[in-house]
Every structure is written in C-alpha cells, then in structure tokens.
C-alpha cells in the first residue's frame, strides 16, 4: 500500500475543490422538467415539500406503531414517514439478537404460557408512559391480543425489557393504555373465557365465562411492571374491547367498551348463525366505567379475591362498593377516547353512523345521585344513555376511532366502510370536513392526540387495505398509512406510506425532542436486566473457564477482531460464549454468528451478550462478525473446534501459509510511517479548527485516539519482535499496527468531512 | 341502524360536492412558507420532486435487498425509497405465517443443518433470474453466509419456495450469482474448512481445509434448484469472496476473488497477531477464474468425485482439464464485477486505492497460449497480473464494489474508508466525479447494473453506518441507503432511506414493469409446493375427520366468519387445522391465531394453510382472524374446546344470552330492505358508468356480487325460519343477511369512489 493513503487523501482533497470535466456534459433537469416527467401537480409539489427530509434532517415526531401479528413495534418519523426501527417484542428477531442471546431469551421466556415458548404476538395498542397526562418519552407498553400479555420497552435503548402474562384472561384487546401518571397499564379482555385453565362447556358460558380489566402496576424506578401489586376487576362475558383512562376531570376512572353483549355463541358448522350475526343484533352494547383509584384502595383493604394467585375484585364486590357502571352505547362500538380535558368520552359504534359524545360530568352526577336506568343480568347498574350524552353526530358509515386536535373541540373519526376521515366539532356537534383515504381505515392517530395536550399538525390514517396504491408485491399486500396535514381547515392528504411487515393497529406519536435515547451502554452491560453483566470482561482479560461442566468463554469484540479467535472444546460440552463490545464509538455494533447452532448475536457498544449451547458433534465451525464494522470486517473471524471425546492433540504446530523476512518488516514499517504522516496531517487539520464545538467530531476524535493507542501497542510488539529477530511476528504485528492506523484514518476522514460540511472555522491556537 | 346507511350515503355524497365552512379559517401555507419553515433549499425541492410519489403512484424500479442477519429479503421502490415488503426467507415471520404454518415449516425444514432447525440466516447477495443476461423478473435467489445455504423465491407471489444446504461448505459469501440464462446459481466459500463434518486440527489447515465454488442447477420449469444435478469445484483454503458470472464474450466462465491467500490462522488469545493482521499482509490475492461450462461437461463425463454424495471436481482434475486459473489482484479485494459487454472484469481491492480492470480477451489469450507466470502452492496456473490488466485507476481509499451505468464505459465504485462513490471511465481509465455519502459505503447498486443492459438513472449507496443521519433510536442504529441521481455528469444525492431491520449487503434493482406478480391463488392452493392442497375444501363442505389419530379440520375463512366456529377435541389429541381462504377479492387476506399454541396463520385469497399441534391440556382456547378484513372483523372468532380425557357431555343446550321475537325480525327485515335500496342506488350509479373500463372496479363488482349472493342465501334461511315461527333463528339469519349487505355496501362505495376519482363517464345503456 506504501504511501497510497497519502496520495488518495490528496486526490480526495483536490476533488473537494473542483474537478476538470472530461466527458460530454449531460444537462440537468429543471424543477419543471421533473414535474412534467413525473406527472406531479403543484399540490403534489407542496406535499413533497411538506414531507421530504434532506440528508441529516430530523423528523418532528416519532411514531410507535404496533406491528400486529408480526409481534413487533415499529418506529417511524413524521413528516418523512421513514421507518427507523422494528423493535422486537414478542417475536424473535436475529438482527437484534432478540431471542438468540441468553439475555433476551430470558425476556421471551417470561412470556411462556403453560410452559410453552411463544414465538409471536398479535400486538395492538402501544402506549407511551405519561406524567400528568403528558407523554414523558420514557417507556412504551404494548399488548398481545392472541396470548394475553403486555410488554415493557425502554425508550432509552428501544429494547424490550419485560413481558407479563395475564393470569386470568384467555384473550384480550383493550390494552395497553396508561393512567395519567403511569400508575397502571390497563389491559381488557376480548373474548370471554373461564378464568381457570380448566375446560368449561359453552353451555355454562353465561355463568362461568368472564371478561375483566387488569390494572398492571408499573414501578417507574425499576422500569418494570409488578405483577404482585397488580389487580383485575371481574366483568360479564361481553366481548370487552378498547379502553381509555380518564384524565384531569375524569382522572381515577377508566372506560372500556364492548360488543356482543348479546353473549351470542356461534356455530355455523352446526347450522347456527355465525358469531357475526348474533353479536351484532342489539342496537346498543355497554361502555364499562370503572373507578380504578377506588379499586386499588379496595385491593389494599383486602377486598379482592385471589384467583390464580392474582387479586380480582369480583363483580359482586365491585357493584357493592360502587366502582363499576355500564352505559349503553350504539352499536358494536370500537373506539372509546377521552377528550384532552377529560370532560368527554367519545365512542364510535362501528354499526352505527354516529359518534356518541358522553359527558363525564353527567355520568358522575348520575352515579352520585344513584340515578340508574336499571341493571344488567349480572346486577351492574346501568346509566341512562340519553342522560349521559352530550351529543351524537352522524359522522359516516362504520366509525371506529377518535383522535384529538390541538385546537379546542376538534376531533377526527375514522370511518371504515366509507373509507374516510371525518373532522368534527364535539362541543357543538358539527361535522366540519371529510377526506377520502385508501382504503378502509382502522385506527387513526394525531400527534400526542390521546394526551392532555395534543400537538395538532398531522394525522395518520392507518388503513387496513392498500389494494392498488403501490407497486404490486404478490397476494399479500402491505398496509397503507396515509399522512394528512390537519393544520388548515381542510384536511390534505400528503403522503402514502406502505407498511412492509405486519398489520399495525394503533400507533402513538410523540414530539421527537422528548426522546433522549442513549448511544452506548456502560461497558459490560446486560441491557435486558439493566445491570452490569456478570459475564463482562475487559480487553486483555479475556479468558476461558470451566464451571459446573460449562465452558465459559469471556470474550471481547472490537474493530476488527474477536477475542478469542480459536475456541477448542470437546464433543458433548456445553459452551457459554460471552462477548463484550468494547467500542465507545456511536453505531459501532458488532455481531457474532456461528455455523449450525442457531446462534446470532448483536452487541452494541458496551453491551455484553451471551450464547449457551451444546456441541453435540465433533467438527469445525467458523464464526465471524455479522455487522460490517470496518474495512477488515471480513477478517473478523474465528473457529470453534470441537474435538472427538478423548482426542489427544498431536504435537503439530500451525503451518504458516506465508513467511516474512526483515525486508517485509522494513517495507511495512515504511508504509506505516508514511501513513502516520497522513494521519498527522488530518489531526492537524482537525485540531486547527473549532472541532470541540461539534459533539459528533469530539466523539470521533476520542474514537480515533483509542485506535491510535492500540496502534502504539501493536507498534511496540512489532519492534520487540524485530529486536529479537523474529521477523515473522514482527511483520505481522507491524501489519496490525497499520490496521489500527487505517481505522484511525477512517474516523479522521469522517471527522474532517463533518467539519468541512458544517463550516468549521480555523481557530488560533 | 334502520335506514342510516341511506342517510350517511346521502351525507357522504353531499360532502363530495361542497362543504359550508363554519369554523374560523386557518390559512394554508404556500410553497415558500413550507420551504422556509422546513429549511429547504431549491436543491432540496428538486430532490423532493424527483422522489416524492403521490398516492397511487408507481415506482420505476423495485429493489430486492438482502436483510443481512435478519434472514429476510426486503423490497423497496425507486425513486420513492418506500419499503413495500419484507419477504421471510431463513427466519420465521408470523405476519406471513412463515415458519408457523405446516406448509412453510416444510420449507424451513429443508434448511436444517445436522438435523438442527435454524431460525435465522445471514443473507448477503440477492440475484434475479436472467434470460440472455437480462433480468427476467421470474425468480430471486439469496444466500446465507452463516450456514451455507441458498433460497429460491418466486416473484409471482414473493414467497420462499426452497432452501438448499451446501453439502461441503461450512461458511460462504460469494453467492447468489446467476449465469446468464440462470443455468446455475453460484455460491462460493468464505472461510475455509474441511469438506467432511469431522474435526480436523488447524495444524492441517493447508492440507485439509478447502474452499470451493458450488454451481447449483436451477430447473426453471419446476422453479426449483436440483441438488442432484449440481456440482462444485474444489479450491485452495484461501478465503474466497464475491463472485460474478461472465456474460456475452466471457459467458461460460465465472470469477471469484479471495483474501487471506496468506492462509493465515489467527489466535490473538494465545499471543498470535489476529486474523486481520495476517490476512492482509500480501500485496496481492487471487482472482479465481473457472470455466463452468466445461466443468459441467466434466461432471457429465464422470470426472467428478463424490464427496458427501455431491459431485466435486477436485483441484487436480480442474488443473489437468484446464478449467481453473488464478490471477493476482491487489489487495484483499472485495468486489468482482463483469462489465455489461462481458469484456472487462473490475476488481476493487479494499486495501488498495485502485480499481483494477482486467481484460477477458487478454486472460483468455494467455490461457490459450498456456502463458503462465507460475503456479500457486496447489499447482493452479497463475496468469500474469500486468499481462491481463486493461488499466488500473486510483479511485479512493478502501474501494469495494463496482456497478455499471447505461452509458458506455461508465462505472461507479464504492469507497469505504473515504465514504464516497467514485464515478469513472473504465475504458479510458479516468476518474470523472466523486460524491460523499454518509457513511462508510459497502455495496452500491445501479438499476439492472449487473446485467448486459444497465438502465442508468439511479444509484443507491448501501451505507454501513448512519450515525447522525436520523432521529436517534438507541444504540442500535438503522443503516442508511442513499439514493443518487446519476442522470447527469455530476452525481446528486437525492434521498436518505433508513433501514429499520437488518443490515443489507447487496441489492438488485429491476424495472418495475418486468414484474407481474399475481393477486390471488387458485382456490385451495398450497403455495409452498405450488399445487392444489390436499387439505383444500369448498364453502359448505367444511368437515372434521379423524385419520391416523389426528383430528383434521377442513375449514374456510371468509368475511367475517371462520368455519368451524367451535372445535371440540379431547385432551391429548393431535389437531390439524386446514383453512382455505375462499375470497377472490384482492388484498382480502385472513389470519388465524389461537391462544397458547404458537399458531399464527396467514391465508391470502385462495390459499390453504395448515397448523398441526398437540393439545396437551383441557381448557378453553379462543381463536380469531388476525387481519382486519371487514367491519365485523372482531366478530370473526371461535373457540377450541379441549375436554378432559373421557369427558361425557351433559345434555345441556347453549344458554341464549338474548331472545328475539317476531317484532325483532320485522325490524331487521325493514332495515335490510332499506339497505338494499341504498345498495341498489350504488349499483345503479356504477352500472350507469363505464365501470368495465376499470379493472379494479370490475374486480370489486365481482366481489360485491359474491357478497350479495351470500346475502340471498341468508335471506332465504331467515325467511324459512320465519315461516316456521322460529323467530330466534329468523332474526339472527336476517342479521347475517344484513351483514352481507354491509360488506357489499363497503365494496360498492369503494367502487363508486374509484369511479369518481378516475373520471368515469356516464354511458348510454
């Protein structure tokens, strides 16, 4: 390579200044040309300007969307609508090592049901932790409809930390929703079932099948749900559905709607009309209203019943203590959404054409006056529909969900059958605007639209069908999230975003500046337990230890080698590999894959990850780093050698494939010296400028300094071997010294480019 | 609901015409306002216009990108850079049911290694099938570096159909690359290992560790690789790397480069310099050149050796028969890319600053003249570097890969360390332009850039680090694919696209109009075997049969019910559920999830999917459709009831939760009659227009007709029950009749909207 580093650096610099054109010139298109070629209207151009985000630009809001049956949460930006991350939650995902490293396997194992590992979830409703009813950007919760569970995700590192299994439900839907200070995470049943794990015939449906709302206690200090401090309220075998927590005026209450209060049981295979017929016959279903603050006190007072070792407030107790009420709601409702001031609760009945606005004040007054319209078959007091209504508005065919604007009294309702969004005033009960979407909208989402202070600006329509919106990709279509500008009176559709994986249900959007994720872990960190890993190791202290019959390898990962590079164990051993990524540089993740054992790890800077597996058969198993981390990434490799039982190594040394002489050594040292001169010139360039004013450059300089320190170590080894006349090792260590230089040059050039592009100034020294 | 359908339809229509504004007007932003608010330059606006794709618009090119260690392939559009689909390949993915239904489990099981199920792959290089060196858009191939395997994906439905395990490799990298008529799919070793599965000590590395190139025979009729007609060529224990097939002038040959021809073995844990030092010492490595057409003949002539029941042409045979040659290439090369005319092979040496352009004509002439510079330690003839070179060009620090333009002699090379793309003329050996990317580019991709006729226009830079480009999402960053406009002399960066999942390596882009995926399957289709499923069933013929101790349920899925709705089996049974989606409508996918058994299915229109599992414990297990398929999607539910062994059902009928009278029936019939009037008006609206000119509307009309036929069936049942005085069943079937009407209305409204938005014309009838 000789002094080519220097040459090319010079060439690169020259290109920064100007390039003499030699080829025939191809004329560039004007804006008009482009619009004509692509058939764009002025309206399209305006939409483009509202959403296009140039390189390095930031989105105003980040969205956390359920991934539906993909079992994940996805994160995207508004207004660019670019997906930034899929967070693995209920489904193993190898890129993140989730479900592949021992640490995350422990999280997934928390979600076992009846001892069985589950490898997916049907995620529905993400909820961001709140403080005083505002998103605080610290935690995210999401439920699994299929196997009633709730997961906790830390927004410091976007990782799943905990999964809790509902102790009494067999199906759920109305989760996760948080109370205004994240005291509890709410989860409500979908399809009724017995609380016990026993078989109960459907002939006992009305008596022994039950719904419930569970209040999961969240300990913010620990960042974990505390199952032992959580409780449920027993509900009738209606199909409970979405829920929402009261806020401000209605704080302390939660609301859960329902469908199939007919308690119909299908059986089309035996000639009975299907569920869909029997579950949609009545004109109204029931909104459940629960005083959760009082419920928590009742539990503390010992008035709960232990079912499956979990505190349940029975319906009888709930009725007696006056914490549970029903209100009729038309018809087969889906969304229930409390207004920002907590005064109103809007319910959209999917088989009604109206949205119903309930007044919390009226509901509360009726309860206080014990003014009930009757009771349901289980004795739960029913409030009168008309007496609790503020207004009803005809919003369209198949209304589902409601989201609030920053402007007072403005709400948006998704209209499934009409494929529209209706904007209306819920104070005055007036429709203001409608917009067509493509197609069949489910949920919709405004910015922080379910908090006490929605942020306006944008609305996303989470459509269930895309049909003809995108290039076709086979029978299984993406979903379509459409971005709507709601800044003005008239809603404007400004972007169509395909969802490439999963079927999102609900999503929540938070102001991007509320999120402060970290870029690295403390060195040797078990990120799933949020503590120093017992398996961490420092560079230079790597070792192998056998304990309790398990061969523990305490290794490290750094650009561009894995320590150890050779691991030899005997057939039948259990191996437990522990790797600490000892990088400090942002985005310097390393991976680890090995053939045939289903082991794939992801170690972000600072993280310690482990993989424990049995080696059943003798053989040769190559391993390597799976993240393209440096120029010599492909050389970041090693071998696991499994010897047959009782194998005695022959006294054979490695066959060197190549021999090196003093001449090779001298040549390498010359190249290194030249390279060092180039590095010095880059260092000079950087330090002559106000680089300390740029955090990313400060980080790069730290990283480059690390690499140059490693280079100095390798240089010393090379020189020591040279002094002893061992030209083989001297040359190889001189090469390693050079490799560290290349890494330092890589970083230095990035720092230099950054300074150039950000108008850094020369400073007096 | 009464006649609300009619009302709201009228309201909706009114909104289409105009809306009386009642709220205070919020003024809309002008383009200048938006640019100012968002800090956009004129150049940004031009880039926005070049990439923004309005609703319903199509992308010009579709990209198939490896997902790296996510084990998937992702599909995105150019220029919108929107991701359209993640195709599950080596990793189970529940949204697609991949690895969850029996049919796809069989595909994944083909990829077992030593009997072990693997749940990830490290996908690297996708390849589209070719005809005469052009992409034909029929098949996609992708390799797994970690566990040497190749997968076959059908571009008719974007599904993985086959996985083959390499019979001799323990690690690979240089796959998948196809020959110009997809005769073979090429796969090359990465890290050398013994061909046998035995342990071989590293002291025997030079003698018993080996590389190889495997040529997988692809049978286009069957759409499957034929392992029995595939073969390999034995190679030295160099770390083989990327490969490419010759084309036109060089058709019949394939090229594979390598690094670590030093055959160095690391061992930093025992004081040896690491692999990265010893593998990068020599100034040149070797390009391998193999005559695969002659090799195939040699196999046919019986000159291959069976190793692990696989045909291998040994090095001795390859040398003797004159099909294997080496050419020195500087230094630790990565990409090897044959020019569109097949005349040149460009190699980028990542530790060199040059790209080397080899002339196939010169190589061939030397071979024909037996003019060799020597042999390697294994006796393979080496061609002289200088004699084979056309030119060398200094392109930058850390050049990796090359992609071709539609303009003659123009190539783009990714420059890793400099974080740049260099555009240069490989005929004249001249650098033309450079552009900075963000950051550390690996592969790059031009449109059909590795075929005989690249399409120009766009280039994508597949960057390994994103660092500061996007809103932060924790220590694990997305990757960054940057779209570059190459239409003009000067490259222009026009879009930054985050990669939310996985670490793509290579990607290929095909003109979108070459892809013709289907939108539905023939009814009762096993999509993984591409044949009628033995478990298909027609609506009305659903049944349960016990065979060989397994309870087979032959069921159907349709908006909005699952048949059967109740399944009752005894504890300890093995249940095999088979569901056929009997929809014909585009995008009408249904899912199936059931609690606790890790069963989640996806059935696109026409598909039959199965899940077989053992029910160990008595209990109640709700199931439901996971795709939001219709307004009554939530009611698309059922129960699996597992009775204890020997359970005798009591003679107890279901407790009806609700009773219906003649009055209820009459009310429902009235609602249905009103609804029918609305539907008739929509039908009239559609049929009065030239709807037959719009394929999507024709499809919707077909679908609506299906639903109305179902409605007629339900109506008949309702009327029959009414005639017999059974008001309970009469009312419920009348409700079901109404539900089919709602589905028809949903479809009809979509058709009406489509006609409105596409300027349909009233036609004389």
What can you tell me about this protein's structure?
2 copies of one chain form a homodimer. With 765 residues, chain A is α+β, with helices and mostly antiparallel strands. Chain A folds into 3 domains: 84-409, Methylamine Dehydrogenase, Chain H (7 Propeller), CATH 2.130.10.10; 525-643, Sandwich (Immunoglobulin-like); 662-764. In chain A, 21% of the residues lie in helices and 34% in strands. Chain A contains 13 helices and 44 strands. In chain A, the strands form 11 sheets. Chain A has a 6-stranded mixed sheet with strand order 8-9-10-11-16-15. In chain A, strands 35, 36, 37, 39 and 42 form a 5-stranded mixed sheet that branches. In chain A, strands 38-44-43-40-41 form a 5-stranded mixed sheet, with no helix packed on it. In chain A, strand 8 (177-178) and strand 9 (184-188) form a beta hairpin. In chain A, helix 11 (662-687) packs parallel to helix 13 and helix 12 runs antiparallel to helix 13 (727-757). The longest helix of chain A has 31 residues, at 727-757. In chain A, 63% of the residues are buried. Mean pLDDT of chain A is 94; it is low at 1-25. Chains A, B: Residues 503-656 form the Cytochrome oxidase subunit II copper A binding domain. Chains A, B: One of its GO terms (molecular function) is nitrous-oxide reductase activity. Chains A, B: It is found in: Periplasm.
């Amino acid at each position: 390579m000789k002094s080519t580093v220097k040459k090319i650096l010079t060439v690169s610099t020259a290109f920064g200044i100007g390039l003499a054109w030699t080829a025939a010139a191809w004329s560039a298109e004007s804006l008009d040309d482009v619009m004509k070629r692509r058939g764009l209207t002025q309206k399209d151009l305006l939409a483009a300007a509202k959403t296009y985000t140039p390189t390095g630009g930031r989105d105003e809001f980040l969205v956390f969307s359920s991934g539906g049956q993909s079992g994940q949460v996805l994160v995207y930006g508004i207004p660019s609508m670019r997906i930034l991350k899929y967070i693995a939650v209920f489904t193993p995902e190898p890129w993140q090592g989730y479900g592949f490293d021992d640490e995350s396997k422990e999280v997934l194992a928390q979600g076992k049901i009846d001892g069985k590992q589950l490898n997916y979830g049907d995620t529905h409703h993400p909820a961001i932790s709140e403080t005083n009813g505002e998103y605080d950007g610290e935690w995210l919760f999401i439920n699994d409809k299929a196997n009633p569970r709730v997961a906790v995700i830390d927004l410091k590192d976007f990782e799943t930390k905990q999964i809790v299994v509902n102790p009494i439900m067999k199906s759920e839907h109305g989760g996760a929703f948080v109370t205004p200070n994240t005291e509890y995470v709410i989860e409500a049943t979908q399809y009724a079932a017995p609380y016990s794990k026993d078989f109960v015939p459907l002939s006992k449906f009305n008596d022994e099948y039950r719904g419930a709302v569970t209040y999961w206690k969240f300990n913010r200090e620990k960042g974990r749900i505390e199952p032992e401090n959580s409780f449920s309220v027993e509900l009738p075998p209606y199909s409970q559905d979405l829920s929402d927590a009261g806020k401000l005026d209605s704080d302390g209450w939660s609301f859960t709607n329902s469908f199939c209060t007919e308690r119909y049981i299908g059986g089309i295979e035996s000639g009975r009309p299907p569920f869909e017929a029997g579950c949609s016959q009545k004109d109204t279903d029931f909104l459940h209203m629960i005083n959760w603050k009082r419920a928590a006190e009742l539990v503390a007072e010992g008035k709960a019943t232990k079912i499956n070792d979990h505190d349940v407030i029975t319906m009888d107790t709930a009725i007696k203590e006056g914490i549970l009420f029903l209100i009729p709601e038309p018809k087969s409702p889906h969304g229930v959404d409390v207004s920002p001031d907590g005064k109103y609760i809007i319910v959209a009945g999917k088989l009604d054409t109206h949205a119903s606005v309930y007044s919390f004040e009226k509901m509360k007054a009726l309860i206080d006056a014990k003014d009930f319209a009757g009771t349901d078959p289980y004795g739960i007091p029913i409030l009168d529909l008309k007496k609790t209504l503020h207004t009803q508005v005809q919003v369209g065919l198949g209304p589902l969900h409601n989201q609030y604007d920053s402007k007072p009294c403005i709400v948006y309702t998704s209209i499934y059958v009409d494929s529209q969004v209706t904007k209306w005033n819920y104070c005055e009960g007036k429709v203001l605007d409608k917009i067509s979407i493509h197609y069949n909208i489910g949920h919709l989402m405004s910015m922080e639209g379910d908090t006490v202070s929605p942020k306006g600006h944008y609305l996303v329509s989470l459509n269930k069908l895309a049909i003809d919106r995108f290039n076709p990709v086979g029978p299984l279509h993406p979903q379509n999230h459409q971005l709507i500008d709601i800044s003005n009176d008239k809603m404007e559709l400004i972007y169509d975003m395909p969802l490439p994986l999963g079927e999102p249900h609900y999503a929540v959007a938070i102001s991007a500046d509320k999120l402060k994720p970290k870029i690295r872990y403390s060195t040797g960190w078990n990120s799933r337990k949020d503590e120093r890993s017992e398996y961490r190791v420092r560079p230079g202290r790597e070792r192998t230890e056998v304990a309790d019959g398990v061969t523990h390898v305490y290794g490290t990962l750094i650009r561009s080698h894995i320590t150890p590079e050779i691991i030899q164990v005997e057939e039948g051993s259990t191996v437990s590999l522990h790797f600490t990524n000892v990088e400090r540089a942002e985005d310097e993740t390393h991976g680890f894959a090995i053939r045939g054992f289903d082991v794939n790890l992801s170690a972000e800077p600072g993280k310690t990850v482990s993989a424990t597996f049995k080696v059943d058969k003798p053989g040769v198993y190559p391993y390597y780093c799976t993240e393209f981390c440096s120029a010599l990434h492909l050389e970041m490799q090693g071998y696991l050698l499994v010897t047959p039982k009782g194998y005695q190594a022959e006294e054979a040394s490695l066959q060197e494939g190549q021999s090196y002489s003093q001449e090779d050594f001298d040549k390498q040292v010359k190249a290194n010296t030249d390279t060092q001169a180039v590095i010095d010139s880059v260092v000079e360039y950087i330090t002559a400028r106000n680089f300390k004013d740029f955090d990313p450059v400060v980080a790069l300089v730290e990283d480059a300094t690390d690499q140059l320190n490693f280079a100095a170590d390798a240089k010393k080894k090379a020189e020591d071997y040279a002094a002893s006349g061992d030209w083989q090792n001297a040359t190889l260590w001189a090469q390693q010294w050079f490799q560290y230089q290349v890494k330092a040059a890589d970083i230095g050039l990035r720092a230099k480019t950054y300074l150039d592009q950000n108008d850094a100034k020369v400073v007096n020294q």
